[in-house]
Specification:
It contains 7 helices and 2 strands. It has helices spanning 2-15, 62-98, 102-125, 129-143, 147-155, 157-169, 185-195, and strands at residues 34-38, 41-45. It has a two-stranded antiparallel ribbon. Helix 2 packs across helix 4, helix 2 (62-98) crosses helix 7 (185-195) and helix 5 (147-155) packs antiparallel against helix 6.
Length: 199
């Protein structure tokens, strides 16, 4: 009786290293290959992530390289705010369509503005002037409208004029547009690399 119990127990411990944690397969270890048959030949088909390649940057000196590196850092700080602005604007527009009375729309806009100011003012104050300028351009990229036009549409001409005057004092301009093929080509390249997970 003891032998019958003892032998399976020994076999269990001898074979235990074969089931160590290193050898356990997970769902990420498994790849199911797809294939298509063309003229009797089976061809393996695989989907791979898109990789975007831009020309290599040639910097004439240390300062050009440093300026480019700072641009990457500034875009990484401003870009999430631009994405948030785009998503928020979509949500606000979708909700405004459900409200038929102008008074309700104005109350809703005031409520959203208060919530956004309470939630994000302190974080936005930490952006540098350069990051703010980049944010204005990226908001245009996300929404298709200048920051000035957005303020004018949602808050009125007086508010748009006030905020434009304040922006001009700090050397910025709410009427800046985004030109991905011209002046803002480098910003566009960096944003595309960020979106693609390459940067």
């Amino acid at each position: 009786m003891v032998k019958r119990f003892f032998i399976p127990l020994i076999l269990l411990f001898v074979s235990w290293p074969g089931y160590s944690q290193d050898s356990i397969r997970t769902s990420t270890d498994i790849y199911i290959a797809r294939g298509i048959v063309i003229d009797g030949d089976t061809i393996w088909v695989s989907e791979i992530d898109e990789v975007i390649i831009f020309p290599e940057k040639n910097f004439k000196n240390f300062w050009q390289r440093r300026r480019y590196t700072r641009l990457i850092i500034n875009i990484k700080r401003a870009y999430p705010w631009a994405k948030l602005a785009g998503r928020t604007l979509e949500d606000v527009n979708a909700h405004l369509l459900t409200l038929e009375i102008e008074k309700e729309q104005k109350e809703y806009l005031k409520q959203v503005e208060k919530e956004l100011l309470d939630k994000y003012t302190e974080d936005l104050k930490r952006l540098t002037i350069t990051q703010g300028k980049i944010l204005i351009k990226l908001v245009y990229r996300e929404t298709g409208a200048t920051s000035y036009d957005l303020v004018e549409f949602y808050r009125g001409k007086f508010s748009a004029f006030f905020w434009q005057a304040l922006a001009r004092i700090f050397g910025s301009n709410l009427k800046l547009e985004y030109d991905p093929y011209g002046e803002d080509r480098l910003i566009e390249e960096i944003v595309v690399l960020i979106e693609n997970g390459q940067l």
